[in-house]
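Input record, target 12 of the design panel.
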């Protein structure tokens, strides 16, 4: 029912733009922004190494499609990393708070 969605961005400003949109539109209850993660990956046949910003988005399973659509519309990358992990357990009061902060779908 609840999910953590991970998404990297090239900089803090793009992460803040996306985070604010998700929270303002009640798609996410909370977005943590972690500065300076190092990403090593292959892109267009070449190994890349970049400093990125990681967003940790807390929401519900039912809102994933809307979150993915909104991130894709706002994200500067051609292919945005958007990965959802189901929350198996958590503080009941915190999970109830997530419910109260997001749109019901």
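The sequence produced for target 12 reads:
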């Amino acid at each position: 029912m609840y999910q953590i969605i991970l998404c990297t961005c090239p900089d803090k400003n793009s992460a803040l733009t996306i985070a604010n949109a998700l929270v303002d539109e009640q798609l996410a209850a909370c977005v943590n922004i972690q500065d300076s993660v190092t990403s090593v990956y292959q892109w267009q046949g070449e190994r890349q190494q970049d400093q990125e910003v990681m967003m940790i988005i807390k929401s519900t399973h039912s809102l994933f499609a809307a979150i993915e659509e909104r991130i894709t519309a706002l994200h500067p990358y051609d292919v945005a990393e958007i990965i959802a992990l189901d929350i198996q357990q958590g503080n009941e009061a915190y999970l109830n708070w997530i419910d109260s902060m997001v749109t019901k779908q």
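The mean pLDDT is 96.
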